[in-house]
Amino acid sequence: KAGSVWYGSRVPVLRGFETVFSWVITDPSVECTEHVDRTFSLKQHKSCAVKGGDGFAFVIHGDPNDSFALGGDGEHLGYGGIENSIAIEF
Question: Hey, how many other C-beta atoms are within 10 angstroms of the C-beta on 58?
Answer without folding.
Answer: 13
